[in-house]
Amino acid sequence: MKIVSLQAKRYRRAFRKPLITSHGPISERTGWIIRAENEDGMAGFGEAADSLPGFGKNDTNSVESDQAVLKQLEVALPDVEFDTLWMRFKELIKICPDHASPAMRFGFETAVCDVAARKHEIPLSEWISPFSPSAVPVNYLLPSPVDDWGLVKAEISTCRYPAVKIKVGAGEIADDVATVKKLRTMLDYSPAIRLDANQAWDYDTALAVLDVMSEYDIEYVEEPLKVFDYDLLMRLKEETGIEMAIDESLTLIDDIYELLSRKGSLVLILKPSLLGHILTPRHITLNAGVNDCRAVITSNLETEIGIAAQLHLAASSWDQKETCGLDTLRLFRRGNPALMQVTDGVIKLPSGSGIGDGIGEEIWDNL
Ligand SMILES: [Mg+2]
Fold first, then answer.
1. By CB distance 3.0 to 4.6 Å, which of 44, 227, 305, 328 could disulfide with 114?
2. Which residue from 240, 299, 234 is spatially nearest to 266, judged by alpha carbons?
3. CB crowding 202-215: b at 16 or more within 10 Å, else e
4. What is the mean pLDDT of the chain?
């Protein structure tokens, strides 16, 4: 298979309300949708979301640098013959220039893999692994601050999310504790509670907060410390009895493998668009399992095309059956979250081949 045309369009999508993190508020998402077409006129799609301030330190994309990468790819691609079996997809990894941002790499690879899967008339997940399930469990991301607890209760209860993720550390500690307490006591079932502090605390503050929080049965806390320190994290875990998760402090693939080799029972939050290759999260997930760690595939707040790709990826990395952080489409003001709705705690993979029917030309045409 040859890719004879590569196009990209910019998108800008506003959130229903700004997301408050300890790195500051985020009010909109921008990035690229990439369209790759093969010699049969079949198209595949990928998304390269722009880097978010404070997240993904190795992601230094700019519109100009991305444009330069796209131009280079456009020139090089027609000469490359892709074998459409994923095990032989090495050409894909080699072709992207070294200076491409991880998100651009991920978006480009997704688009080409999408064409290959569509060519075989199978879902992307199945193209990667024939044993992939057709649905992925997801967590609920609690709005911060919560304006309407009635709505939150209705959303969680109706969809039966297996886990709820709460952003903490951006405001008063007492408010964070009150939020966790409220959530733990208002539902008619007990979802796992995940905290994400986005590097808000020093060690003593983290210890004090988590000591109080441990009463509410916390599954894990992401990035509790201002500065990544493996030994301190292990100490914090020991002292609080709460599992520790790593997200934005580790985006370099080599660092992740180094961490896995320590077998420290950590939870790795894997954001495919920050890791930079579509197949890397699956490989890390498989390695995490044999190294006493867990891996949770989580979006970097992409739109439909990026989320659909990551759902397929999560399904193909099924070995650990983790609840993923992929229910983020409903944070956007417009779009079509009905394409990937949560029922009984899972999102069913979009039907059809590649990343899914209705998630391709229809979205591209309306950008
Ligand atoms: Mg996080």
1. 44
2. 234
3. ebebbeebbeebee
4. 91
Residue 264: HSE in the Cβ half-sphere, 13 Å Cα cutoff: 24
Is 218 in contact with 242 (CB distance < 8 Å)?
yes
Amino acid 27 reads S
CA of 312 to the centre of ligand 1 (A): 21
First to last CA, the chain: 27
The set of residues, in sequence order, having a beta carbon less than 8 Å from that of 219 and lying 6+ positions away, is 163, 192, 193, 194, 243
Please write the tens of the pLDDT for every residue from 67-124.
999 999 999 998 888 888 876 777 777 888 888 999 999 999 999 999 999 999 999 9
**Claim: this prediction has a pTM higher than 0.85:** yes
Cα of 19 from ligand 1 centre, angstroms: 13
CA of 334 relative to ligand 1 center, distance in Å: 24
- Angle CA(183)–CA(170)–CA(225) in degrees, nearest 5? 100
Q: Strands 294-297, 243-246: parallel, antiparallel or unpaired by DSSP?
A: unpaired
Q: What are the structural domains of the chain?
A: 3-121 (3.30.390.10), 128-361 (3.20.20.120)
Strands (E), 39-183: 43-49, 135-137, 139-141, 163-167
CB atoms closer than 10 angstroms to residue 99? 11
CA 157 to chain centre: 24
What is the CA(198)–ligand 1 centre distance, in A? 6
Distance 275 CA to ligand 1 centre (A): 14
Cis peptide bond upstream of 133, omega within 30: no
Q: What 8-state DSSP symbol labels residue 334?
A: S
Name residue 161's beta-bridge partners: none
